[in-house]
Amino acid sequence: MARTRLPGRRLLAGALAALLLAAMPARAELPPPLQQRLAQAGVPPQSLGLVVMPAGGGEPFIAHQADRPLQPASTMKLLTTLVALEQLGPAWRGRTRLLVSAPIEDGVLQGDLVLQGEGDVDLDVDALRQLLQRARALGLAQIRGALVLDRSAYTPTRLDLGVPPFDEGPEFAYNVIPDALLVGENLLRLLLHVDERGLQVRLLTPLSGLRVAHEMQLVAGDCSRWDEGWQAPRLRPEGWLRQRELVLRGTWPVRCERTLALNVLDRDEYIGRLVGALWRELGGSWSGELREGLAPPQARVLAEHRSRPLAELVRTINKNSDNILARTLYLALGRAWRERQTSTEEKAPDGAAAEVPTLVHAEQAVRAWLRARGIDDAGLVLDNGSGLSRSERVTPAQLAAVVRAGMASRWAPEFLSSLPIAGIDGTLRRRLADGLADGVPGGAAPPKRLKTGTLKNVVSLAGILPDAAGQPLVVVAIVNDDEHRPVALRPLLDSIVDWVAQQRFEPR
Fold it and tell me: Which among 2, 29, 98, 231 could disulfide-bond with 249, CB atoms 3.0 to 4.6 Å apart, if both were Cys?
């Protein structure tokens, strides 16, 4: 009797196995369909870190290399923005102040004019013009002293000095290293277009004593690939007309019009030329020098500018993957952490405050936040909080725990609304739009909200999405592979996330 029933039992066992596979219980190994995708792309399984787990709690459904520290690229911004929301609050704003060190008499300031920065990421050319307009409205016409740039909110004051270029394009905006007083992101904006006279270059940023020329050759080509013939610009010293010259080099497509933003001037020189141009535009005069320094204790505030509140800034950071904003926010975390510390451990022997770098304080703030939520920080390597780093590391499990903590945070609406929506906005506006059917219970599926990340050897996605049954999942997928470029790795990662969204996961 037992032998006659054995085939039936085997069929039953096979059916149960099929049901279990369909239900996708928690597993450490990678599911066969994902192994196949990796094999077809020529990417070894050890290049992938993947965590899929229920958003509301419980064990992961998939945990492949979950505890391996990997380069996260810009998915690291999720950690920075969530910690900032919880430690600074959604109403936090950076600030810039314009101060005078002496009274204004008959429109003349015999002392210094001080521009003091405190992480105001919205201090663009128009905002600086408004500060100077306020000073003119209060009667200031002539500045006899110096223009003093106060960057003392962060230590050191110039984090860009002595730092080697991140890649071969240090002049482009994503590579700008912020400080407490970053005006216009230190970018010169140029309009390049071609007419019957040839290539024309127009400087859009008002900078006194700077002219732009070019040595570029016109070529046939696609305007979207204008940078293929680009060469680093050259700055020439002041000539007999006391003008600096910026020379653009390389090739330019003959039918191409673009506005470029370039980081080519030292930031002190940039601010000095910008203030000089704007102040003259407003009818004022300035005959003093430009220098870095501190606002004196008796300085009087003439005007103040504040950035957008943090709840708005995190949307720009995560949806657009803005490195400058993320790095500035990371520094703001460090400054706030330093101000909260009252321990004598950071005091020099003479009792003066030790010069602990703001980045060190920022790391302390982030690690303290993780530990307070029971998230193991082993293997985590922090650099600047943006992911634009060769040294930053995070495990998929840590990043998944951060996303889950964000969903449970009192600032969850602000955090979740900052994530790019697949097929709709941000860095996902052209990705993952068709990977999920609408036939889930209750109507159309909720959108995928995922932060993207890209470096030359990294692609990553981290955020939330529903499975085929509408169950909200936390998903972190990171590929580190030196043999493939992002253009090849990105479709692989998208197919992995789409496969996850098409499954029905059963909690254990």
Answer: 231
pTM for the model:
0.90
* 170 and 250 belong to one structural domain: yes
Phi then psi for residue 440, to 5 deg, are -90, 160
Residue 300 is assigned to a structural domain of this protein: yes
Residue 114 lies in a domain: yes
Any domain includes 485: yes
Residue 388 sits in a domain whose CATH number is: 3.40.710.10
pLDDT score for 100 = 96
- Bond preceding residue 156 cis, omega within 30 of 0: yes
Indicate whether 12 belongs to any domain. no
Same domain? 84 vs 103: no
Q: Which tokens sit at 156? A: 């050191």
Residues 392 and 280 in one domain: no
The H or E element that residue 489 is part of is: helix 486-501
Packed helices 125-137 and 267-281: angle between N→C axes, nearest 10 degrees: 50
Each residue's pLDDT tens digit, 65-102: 999 999 999 999 999 999 999 999 999 999 999 999 99
| Distance, CA of 226 to CA of 230 (rounded, Å) | 7
CA distance 200 to 80: 41
Q: 312 Cβ partners below 8 Å, 6+ apart?
A: none
pLDDT for res 348: 46
Radius of gyration of the chain (CA): 27
Full domain range(s) for residue 184? 95-306
Domain count of the fold of the chain: 2
Structure tokens, 243: 């003008």
* 77 contact partners, CB below 8 Å, separation of at least 6: 317, 318, 321, 326, 385, 386, 387, 451
Q: DSSP states of 260-329 as a string?
A: EEE--S-HHHHHHHHHHHHHHHTT-EE-S-EEE----TT-EEEEEEEPPPHHHHHHHHHHHT-HHHHHHH
Say if residue 76 is in the same domain as residue 114.
Answer: no
Please give the mean pLDDT across all residues of the chain.
90
The CATH number linked to 126 is: 3.50.80.20
Query: Per this entry, what is the length of the chain?
Result: 508
The verdict on 190 and 254 lying in the same domain is yes
pLDDT of 135 strictly over 80 = yes
pLDDT, tens digit, 9 for 90 and up, residues 432-457: 986 543 434 444 667 899 999 999 99
In the structure, what pLDDT confidence band is assigned to residue 238 with cuts at 50, 70 and 90? Answer: confident
* Token pair listed for 338: 């330093």
- Helix, strand, coil fractions of the chain, as percent rounded to 5: 35, 25, 40
